Amino acid sequence: MPAFAGDCREAGLADRRAVQAEALVLKVYCPDTLHRIQEQIEDLKTDQTVRR
Questions:
Q1: Spatial distance between the Cα atoms of 28 and 23, rounded to a whole number of angstroms
Q2: How far apart are the C-alpha atoms of 29 and 21, rounded to whole Å?
Q3: Is the dihedral of CA 34, 13, 17, 47 positive or negative?
Q4: In which domain, by residue range, is 16 found?
Q5: CA distance 8 to 19
Q6: Number of folded domains that form the chain
Q7: Euclidean distance between the first and the last CA atom of the chain, given in angstroms as a whole number
Q8: What is the tens place of the pLDDT at every residue in 1-52?
Q9: What's the CA gap between 23 and 39, in Å, rounded?
């Protein structure tokens, strides 16, 4: 499991756009990994946590 998935769960809330960006990187460079962890990514609690 990538570090970001575990880190987000421990923190309790992840920035939605950051998770989407990391998933995009996995889609391009590690599609097999993304496929294996897609459900875990979808289960993460996300919100807009970064001020833009």
A1: 9
A2: 12
A3: positive
A4: 3-47
A5: 9
A6: 1
A7: 29
A8: 455 554 544 556 778 888 889 999 999 999 998 888 888 888 878 777 666 6
A9: 12
